[in-house]
Amino acid sequence: MSGIKTDLSGQTAVITGSTSGIGAALAEGLAANGANIVLNGLGDLDSIKALRARIAKDHGVEVRYHAANMLKPDEIAEMIAFAQSEFGRVDILVNNAGIQHVAPVDEFPTEKWDAILAINLSSAFHTIKAAVPIMKAQGRGRIVNLASAHALVASPFKSAYVAAKHGIMGLTKTVALEVAEAGITVNAICPGYVKTPLVEGQIADTAKARGISEEEVVRDVMLAAQPTKKFVMYDELVGALLYLVSDAGASCNGTSISVDGGWVAK
């Protein structure tokens, strides 16, 4: 994992959308530094059970799972209460759950708009609303929202996703101001393209659809906006997260860290 180290022993971290991809990597990064983990997300229950067992064994921490549906505020509140019940505290909240749909605005399905806003934005409001009273009582807390380069810049055909991610930045700044004197920080990480299993599958599909090589898909389609022409790696996101949840990041509040190879510098 990342070379940044911080002692999170005895702390509890809740990570939404953490049964695969970026969320699972972030959960493991926190576990590697001693945090007990509450996973959340979709997937085969046997696979989730195996992930829990592996993280617990590899890092000597406790790992739980809560299947809260990010479309349902009551279940989200239950998840935060579950974390406190299981471990006695909630120290770190990582809002990572998200979905995507791409279409011109005049063809964008209304139900897709509603789902993307609910999962990518409103779910973070609900987790934060439930976690902040616990963190205030503890006198310390770290909230990190996984935004995106699209929280800072736009791309065509992604109206719902860009709107939600811009909203996440507004939520991040607002809550940071509200809790600044309570020992709680609220920040965002804004990744560029990350080579998740979903993206890897899209490379081959896009190459076939466009009649170009996979190398051209990566360079000229997916990474066209990233000056490095390299995917963001999981460990690079873990490094940013560890800084934000550590004591070293205590004065980083209400802001974002771009991990995008220079995308938003243009």
UniProtKB/TrEMBL annotation:
Domain of life: Bacteria
Membrane-traversing stretches: none
InterPro entries: 3-OHbutyrate_DH, NAD(P)-bd_dom_sf, Sc_DH/Rdtase_CS, SDR, SDR_fam
Family the entry assigns: Belongs to the short-chain dehydrogenases/reductases (SDR) family.
NCBIfam families: PHB_DH, PRK12429.1
The protein's name: 3-hydroxybutyrate dehydrogenase
Species whose genome carries this gene: Hyphobacterium marinum
